## 1
Amino acid sequence: MVEPKYLQIENELKEEILSGQFQYADKFYSEKELKEKFNVSSITVIRSVKDLVKAGYLVRYQGKGTFVSHSPHQRLVRFKELNLFPQKDGAVKEDIKVISLEKEDDPSINFELGINKNTYHYHLIQVRSVNDVPFLYYQAYFAPKFINHNKIKDLQTNFQNIYVRIRQDSNIYLLDEPFKEKDSIVKASSEVAQALGLKEGDYVVKQEKKIVSSKNSEVLLYMVNYKKLDYTEVSFTTPDYPEI
């Protein structure tokens, strides 16, 4: 199917903004300039510009013109998450205990995984500890097709790392696939509190992450983890920040 002209123009203008041809607060093309640039009608360029304004790439000021607004809130940054492990006698020993791997048919999880509501998914639960102190309650959800079911017989050996399991069974390298993560501070439920040695209602970091296939956007893994506050540190830097 042929892409509509307004969308072709929109994508080309977006590429100009993202490639650095415009900086933050630069004045953008006028309607007349866009009509001449693409040899189209006012209606077409107005629709393209409206979409870019709605998406946050441009901002329009009555009587002044259109300006680039993309840079401040869309600039590429590097995200780094660190596990802060208090040292004990100069050594750090991290352990992973697989609590369970169950078949479930929770409709809300099936929705997140993009699978039929009448089928089932796997729910993997782990507790991760450092120096025998639990710090992370780990939950991973995934469709049955991604693992070799014969491996379920020995959970402690075969499900220490679900990334490795899926790579070995389905030849999918999850670390190279697109993902979206949202971190928030929440109160621990009784289940989470018990697993982490906390009081119900204590604050923890909730980490919700979804990994999808770069080929077809299929959901490969959905995770909902809870981490103790004092074991977490995050940093954000722009790629051009000098390493010290």
## 2
Amino acid sequence: MPSMMLTDQHRVLVTESFALLVPISDDAAAVFYQQLWTIAPETKPMFQSTDMAAQGLKLMQTLGVIVRALHDLETIRPFMRELGQRHIGYGVTADQYVLVKVALLYMIEYCLGDKFTPEVRAAWDEAYDMLASFAIAAYE
């Protein structure tokens, strides 16, 4: 259960670590989807007719929008709820948000290497739980 305690330090760590991913967006997205399909093979068919280069770009752009909005969570709440509604249409279940989190944290750790400190992990963990709760609200 998310603790909903996103601190200023969390916001800084997420923003700074995301900035390191931006120059390697294509590779980062590829790592994310490969990991998602490894831990949740049932999700792969959802992408069978998808241009994965475009999908990867969409993933990283969406993460960018979210990261930039971390300072004002009320502005991102409707965006996340709409994202959740879209994912319902794609066949994503609320339970799969946990798997997405695992794949996302794996991707960040893989891409950042030793820059993925326990503090950075905790910041992403907190941010993801809070933001995912906004998206999952669309399922209720």
